[in-house]
What we know:
globular; alpha/beta
Amino acid sequence: MTVGIPIRRLWPEPSDLPLDDATLTALYGRADQPRLRVNFVASLDGAVTVDGYSAGLSGEPDKRVFSLLRMLCDALVVAAGTLRHEGYRAVRLDERRRAWRREHGLAEYPTLVVVSGSLDLDPAQAAFADAPVRPVVLTHAGVDPPPGLADVADVLRCGTDRVDLAAGLDELHRRGLTQLLCEGGPHLLGALTAADLVDELCLTVAPLLAGPGPGRITAGDATPPRQLPLRHVLAADDGVLLLRHARG
Ligand SMILES: NC(=O)c1ccc[n+]([C@@H]2O[C@H](COP(=O)([O-])OP(=O)(O)OC[C@H]3O[C@@H](n4cnc5c(N)ncnc54)[C@H](OP(=O)(O)O)[C@@H]3O)[C@@H](O)[C@H]2O)c1
């Protein structure tokens, strides 16, 4: 079944045929080993937001791949900054996507994992309060959770005074959450890049110039460059590019 604005493959093996959901699912897939996939949308000139939010960059093809990537993961990792700023709600999938997960032996919904150093989190936020699966908060030993947070989430401590991301991902793997999808934001991507934990980047390039002002998809202290080879280039009929880069 093809929905909405057609998406076609430009590289490798260019094809004029619009990609159906089954083909898109196979193109992104799940790995047979633990993997951290990161998904972002950016403008042509590298902006991560328009008017402060990612919504101004995202159209129907991006949303289609965004929800497909959520369907494919065991856990959805998001930084507290993005959770607060974008007002994350509970992670929900439509019945078609849930059916796919059941058929593949997965929980109906991925687990939300929130990365926070301060634990400045609101347990009443829908991402926690309405979660279909109990979320995990990844933090460190040097901070106490606010009242109510431990009632709605597992608080996982990795690191003494800052979050040890590598240890945190190892602990998620031990819990059976091996296919990880990170939806940002930029400071978390910067920290994951610094720790060389990014296996894959799915980047939607929106065909617009956002102009000066907004940040990039990455932020924080400088890190050594990391190679991430191109795996596919898809294009939607509205001019959006969908890139997948992954290491070996
Ligand atoms: N275009 C896109 O695809 C996209 C995607 C995501 C976000 N965004 C945009 O990005 C902006 C937010 O990004 P941001 O860079 O300011 O924030 P961010 O990376 O989303 O979040 C920063 C916060 O997350 C926690 N965090 C991140 N890395 C951490 C680490 N290594 N250890 C411990 N905690 C960590 C901390 O939370 P605490 O303060 O709780 O300690 C930190 O203050 C928003 O404008 C959002 O709309 C765009």
